[in-house]
Amino acid sequence: MQVKIINPEQFVQHNNKIGILMYTNIESPTVNLFTGEQHFVIKRNEIESPLMEDLNEELLNNNELRALALDNNLIEIKRFSMVEYINYCQSYNK
Fewer Cβ close by (within 10 Å): the C or N end of the chain? Predict the structure, then answer.
Protein backbone atom coordinates (compact mmCIF):
# COMPACT_ATOMS: atom_id res chain seq x y z
CA MET A 1 0.00 0.00 0.00
CA GLN A 2 1.19 3.48 -0.86
CA VAL A 3 -0.27 6.62 0.73
CA LYS A 4 -0.27 9.87 -1.25
CA ILE A 5 -0.81 12.95 0.91
CA ILE A 6 -3.01 15.44 -0.92
CA ASN A 7 -3.36 18.12 1.74
CA PRO A 8 -0.37 18.02 4.14
CA GLU A 9 -1.34 21.36 5.75
CA GLN A 10 -4.22 19.66 7.59
CA PHE A 11 -1.82 17.33 9.46
CA VAL A 12 -0.18 18.67 12.59
CA GLN A 13 1.83 17.36 15.50
CA HIS A 14 1.50 18.06 19.20
CA ASN A 15 4.24 16.46 21.29
CA ASN A 16 4.33 12.88 19.95
CA LYS A 17 0.76 12.88 18.57
CA ILE A 18 0.15 13.37 14.84
CA GLY A 19 -3.36 14.17 13.76
CA ILE A 20 -5.70 16.20 11.59
CA LEU A 21 -6.94 19.73 12.25
CA MET A 22 -10.71 19.82 11.85
CA TYR A 23 -13.64 22.02 12.82
CA THR A 24 -11.41 24.89 13.87
CA ASN A 25 -12.05 28.59 13.40
CA ILE A 26 -9.03 30.31 11.85
CA GLU A 27 -9.06 33.03 14.52
CA SER A 28 -9.51 30.68 17.46
CA PRO A 29 -6.61 30.41 19.94
CA THR A 30 -7.34 26.67 20.23
CA VAL A 31 -7.56 23.94 17.59
CA ASN A 32 -9.26 20.55 17.35
CA LEU A 33 -6.78 17.75 16.78
CA PHE A 34 -8.12 14.34 15.77
CA THR A 35 -5.72 11.39 15.91
CA GLY A 36 -8.25 8.89 14.65
CA GLU A 37 -8.66 7.42 18.12
CA GLN A 38 -8.94 10.60 20.17
CA HIS A 39 -9.90 14.26 20.00
CA PHE A 40 -7.81 16.95 21.69
CA VAL A 41 -8.35 20.69 22.08
CA ILE A 42 -4.91 22.30 22.02
CA LYS A 43 -3.56 25.83 22.03
CA ARG A 44 -2.74 26.87 18.48
CA ASN A 45 0.79 27.95 19.42
CA GLU A 46 1.59 24.43 20.69
CA ILE A 47 1.24 22.65 17.33
CA GLU A 48 3.78 22.16 14.60
CA SER A 49 4.05 20.48 11.24
CA PRO A 50 5.18 16.85 11.39
CA LEU A 51 8.11 15.63 9.34
CA MET A 52 6.88 13.94 6.16
CA GLU A 53 8.64 10.68 7.11
CA ASP A 54 6.85 10.68 10.47
CA LEU A 55 3.50 11.51 8.86
CA ASN A 56 3.87 8.73 6.27
CA GLU A 57 4.80 6.24 8.98
CA GLU A 58 1.85 7.29 11.15
CA LEU A 59 -0.58 6.97 8.23
CA LEU A 60 0.69 3.49 7.46
CA ASN A 61 0.51 2.33 11.08
CA ASN A 62 -2.58 4.14 12.40
CA ASN A 63 -5.65 2.63 10.73
CA GLU A 64 -8.06 5.08 12.36
CA LEU A 65 -6.11 8.17 11.30
CA ARG A 66 -5.73 6.78 7.78
CA ALA A 67 -9.50 6.15 7.54
CA LEU A 68 -10.27 9.65 8.85
CA ALA A 69 -7.84 11.22 6.37
CA LEU A 70 -9.28 9.15 3.53
CA ASP A 71 -12.87 10.10 4.46
CA ASN A 72 -11.90 13.78 4.39
CA ASN A 73 -10.04 13.54 1.05
CA LEU A 74 -6.68 14.38 2.60
CA ILE A 75 -4.95 11.28 1.22
CA GLU A 76 -5.21 8.75 -1.58
CA ILE A 77 -4.32 5.10 -1.17
CA LYS A 78 -2.89 2.90 -3.89
CA ARG A 79 -2.92 -0.80 -3.26
CA PHE A 80 -0.37 -2.84 -5.14
CA SER A 81 -1.08 -6.05 -6.98
CA MET A 82 1.45 -8.78 -6.21
CA VAL A 83 3.34 -8.14 -9.47
CA GLU A 84 3.41 -4.37 -8.88
CA TYR A 85 4.59 -4.93 -5.32
CA ILE A 86 7.44 -7.21 -6.41
CA ASN A 87 8.49 -4.68 -9.07
CA TYR A 88 8.26 -1.90 -6.48
CA CYS A 89 10.50 -3.83 -4.06
CA GLN A 90 12.98 -4.72 -6.78
CA SER A 91 13.33 -1.05 -7.73
CA TYR A 92 15.08 -0.50 -4.39
CA ASN A 93 17.61 -3.25 -5.10
CA LYS A 94 18.96 -1.60 -8.25
Answer: C
